[in-house]
Amino acid sequence: MGEVVNLNKARKARDKAEAKRAADANRLAFGRTKTERLTTQKERDREAEKLDRHKLDEPES
Question: What's the pTM value of the predicted model, to 2 decimals?
Answer without folding.
Answer: 0.47
